[in-house]
């Protein structure tokens, strides 16, 4: 499973989102909106943060740990 955090370089929620990922034991990649206009267009991104899972937009905001866990468990079924 590939998790990507599509964020702006000054996104104040990034440290908290990184902590949530670490708490759940998830590996992820950080992609900056400023450097990936193709992803902004493809997913119609208008703000930050965004969470992509296997190339699909999963969240257009910062999810809670519980929301992340629930979403990812649903993919495993």
Number of strands: 4
Cα gyration radius (Å) = 12 Å
Structural class: alpha+beta
What spatial form do the alpha-carbon principal axes imply? globular
Mean pLDDT: 94
Strand order, biggest sheet? Answer: 2-1-3-4
**Number of helices, where a helix is a run of at least 4 consecutive DSSP H or I residues:** 3
Helix content: 25-40%
3D structure, described in words:
Strand 1, helix 1 (14-23) and strand 2 form a beta-alpha-beta unit. It contains 3 helices and 4 strands. It has a 4-stranded mixed sheet, with no helix packed on it. It has helices at residues 14-23, 37-43, 65-76, and strands at residues 3-7, 29-32, 50-53, 56-59. It is of the alpha+beta class and 77 residues long. Helices cover 38% and strands 22% of the residues.
Structure in a nutshell:
By secondary structure, the protein is an alpha+beta fold.
Keywords:
4-stranded mixed β-sheet, alpha+beta, 3 helices, 77 residues, 22% strand
């Amino acid at each position: 499973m590939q998790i990507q955090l599509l964020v702006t370089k000054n996104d104040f929620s990034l440290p908290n989102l990184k902590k949530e990922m670490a708490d759940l034991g998830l590996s992820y990649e950080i992609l900056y909106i400023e450097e990936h206009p193709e992803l902004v267009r493809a997913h119609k991104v208008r703000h930050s943060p965004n969470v992509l899972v296997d190339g699909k937009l999963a969240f257009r905001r910062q999810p809670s740990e519980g929301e992340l866990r629930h979403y990812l468990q649903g993919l495993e079924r």
